[in-house]
Design a protein that fits this description.
15% of the residues lie in helices and 34% in strands. It is built from ten helices and 40 strands. Strand 37 and strand 38 form a beta hairpin. It is elongated.
């Protein structure tokens, strides 16, 4: 079906292997100086020669017996029986008009093709190429769980779990045409390399109609499979599933070879006659930015303890209703007192021309929610992947609040139609915390969203979602980058002070705005934080092709706790984006004319873009625990309409 990409105007859909089986060759007779060659119907005879060494008489069909003369024989139509086609070679002496001797070359033509049964697909090639004019087949990692009773992903089983399981696989058909009697002396072998044997699994369909008919023939402990030709059937159907995503040690390309072998005596190896190679690429895991349509929101319920989130859940239910998407609440018995669901997992998807389904990437942080993704999200047409560092050591930067992706961007003429992944890290050569290599290697290996490493180690928690977010916009690039900004906050407070509001209270009277402006420690902390954010600002502008007009500064103060920073008041960029509806942490800022001046400032920045700002109180349920709304929620979104294989790399 549609496991191969289709270029405009393509009609060809087969790759042929052809073997000519020949008999009765005699040596050149004594005295012969020339020859001619003629084939029976369906046989084409070509003569190649070096015109500088051989002279051909005009109109003559004879050729000088010379090492510079080569005869090529081909057939386009498979034989109906063994030796049903012939080439006659006639040898001539120097003066004789009649041949002095003749020889017959008996031919049997066998063709085979590996193809996808779609009239518009490209030929399978030995190279896989990117772009709209590219070609090649696509494999999905069979990482979902289609059978309700199964305990693991479908790829963990060496048999077909269900008919739904087959729909996640790529169909491959081997068609062989020619007399079956030829396979008394020859055999057709499907095989893969040692490097690929643990990356794919192949099932051969026998045609009985039951699940048992799908025989595991390649992959893991099976490197080759002899295709039985004794039945004389022309087509053999295979189902191919991916077992591994691209990674540091795997490019994502898998080669299948079909070789015709001449059966030798028991004491000698079989002789290869011809080999075709076809290449598949395993579909990458793709992240989804805030600008894509939200489908489902996940949040944890925390009913017991000193920081319950019942009021927060009610606010989230109201927000999700406005955004017209589904809400899934992970109960306390499943989250085991772990509310940070964004840190535990990241939603993405995989896509082939015949199918697309979401895949959850489970982080290595493994706290209370460590089993949630595998036990509750993995299921029919919902896949699962994880990466664990070899020695088990993880830091806060391995949580997926430290993993984001930009909307599509163009940078100095190069387009990233699926955006670029953003990873929080330490400064180059600083020796600070970094996301574990196992996760970084996986993200880089997907290729279609080349990662950008930012500086987040200046934060105590160390996540990129503490200082940046993306929101949709109707103009320019289709989005705005939001950056937390101490400078913008001080500018706002100074402006309000000049207007006579210096006695405004922050946190319901705990701080006055004029006291915050006068606090030298807070000011010094904020200057340091601003320098860290400015470093990221420069990197983001350079790596995402942004200008100042693409960036909105959101007022925010931070304070240092030791050598690293925490948000001074609820961090407004750490928001949930559901289409035009934004769930923003309520900052409890200074009140001017009965309204929070921080909220009013943010509204003035975002509402002209058609966005709806909804401020939600997460102060005790999340902020005092060093997180905010984005940290405590997760969003499944609709995949990109752009097809990843059309990228120009």
């Amino acid at each position: 079906r549609d496991h191969i990409r289709t270029p405009p105007g393509s009609n060809s859909h087969k790759v042929y292997g052809c073997s000519l089986h020949a008999y009765k060759h005699t040596s050149i007779p004594s005295g012969a100086t020339s020859f001619d060659a003629r084939g029976t119907s369906g046989v084409k005879v070509y003569v190649l020669y070096n015109p500088n060494a051989v002279k051909k008489a005009a109109g003559a069909s004879r050729w000088t017996l010379n090492s510079q003369v080569e005869v090529i024989v081909s057939m386009d139509i498979p034989s109906s029986s063994v030796n049903d086609s012939k080439v006659r070679i006639s040898y001539y002496g120097q003066k004789e008009n009649a041949p002095v001797e003749g020889a017959w070359l008996y031919l049997t033509c066998v063709t085979w093709s590996v193809f996808v049964p779609d009239p518009f697909v490209l030929p399978l090639q030995t190279k896989w190429t990117w772009g709209p004019e590219g070609q090649g087949a696509v494999l999905l990692v069979n990482c979902d769980r289609d059978s309700p009773g199964a305990k693991d992903m479908d790829s963990a089983y060496q048999y077909v779990q269900s008919y739904a399981d087959l729909e996640d696989m790529s169909l491959m058909i081997l068609r062989t045409q020619g007399p079956s009697a030829i396979f008394a002396d020859y055999k057709l072998v499907l095989h893969i390399s040692v490097a690929d044997v643990d990356k794919v699994r192949v099932f051969h369909a026998s045609g009985s109609g039951s699940l048992a008919q799908y025989k595991h023939v390649l992959g893991l402990d099976k490197r080759s499979y002899i295709v039985d030709r004794s039945s004389g059937q022309e087509e053999d159907t295979f189902y191919v599933e991916g077992l591994a995503f691209p990674d540091a040690d795997f490019s994502g390309l898998v080669s299948f070879h079909v070789t015709l072998l001449e059966v030798s005596d028991k004491n000698a190896p079989d002789t290869p006659i011809f080999t075709d190679t076809v290449v598949f690429r395993v579909a990458p895991w793709i992240m989804m930015p805030n600008t894509l349509q939200p489908l489902e929101v996940f949040v944890c319920s925390m009913e017991r303890g000193s920081n319950p989130n019942g009021d927060f859940l009610e606010a989230m239910r109201a927000l999700v209703r406005k955004a017209n998407c589904k809400l899934t609440v992970c109960p306390e018995v499943e989250n085991r007192r772990d509310r940070w669901i964004q840190d535990e997992m990241e939603f993405g998807y995989v896509e082939a021309p015949h199918k697309v389904f979401p895949v959850v990437f489970d982080s290595p942080r493994d706290r209370g929610l460590r089993d949630f993704a595998f036990r509750r999200i993995l299921g029919p047409d919902f896949g699962y992947v994880t990466r664990v560092p070899p020695h088990g050591h993880v830091s806060s930067l391995d949580s997926f609040g430290n993993l984001d992706v930009s909307p599509p961007v163009t940078v100095q003429g190069k387009t990233y139609p699926l955006g670029r992944i953003l990873i929080g890290s330490s400064l180059p050569r600083s020796g600070g915390r970094r996301m574990t290599k196992a996760v970084r290697d996986f993200l880089y290996a997907q290729k279609v969203q080349p990662p950008v490493e930012l500086y987040s180690d200046w934060l105590r928690v160390g996540h990129v979602d503490e200082f940046l977010s993306f929101v949709p916009a109707p103009d320019r690039k289709g989005f705005r980058l939001l950056l937390a900004s101490p400078d913008a906050c001080y500018k706002l407070f100074k402006e309000k002070q000049r207007e006579g509001h210096g006695n405004m209270a922050q946190f319901a009277g705990e701080w006055l705005s004029q006291d915050m402006l006068a606090d030298k420690t807070l000011r010094s902390d904020s200057e340091y934080v601003q320098s860290c954010i400015d470093w990221n600002r420069h990197t983001l502008k350079e790596e995402l092709g942004l200008t100042e007009q693409d960036i909105i500064d959101i007022p925010q103060l931070f304070m240092l706790n030791g050598s690293r920073a925490d948000a001074f008041f609820p961090d407004m960029v750490n928001m949930i984006v559901l289409g035009k509806h934004l769930g923003i942490p309520k900052p409890f800022g200074p009140i001017v004319d009965g309204r929070c001046c921080l909220e009013e400032n943010v509204r003035s920045l975002l509402e002209p873009l058609g966005l709806v700002c909804i401020f939600i109180n997460d102060f005790f349920s999340y902020h005092t625990l060093l997180g905010e709304i984005h940290c405590g929620t997760n969003v499944l979104r609709k995949p990109f309409s752009f097809k990843w294989w059309n990228m120009i790399l």
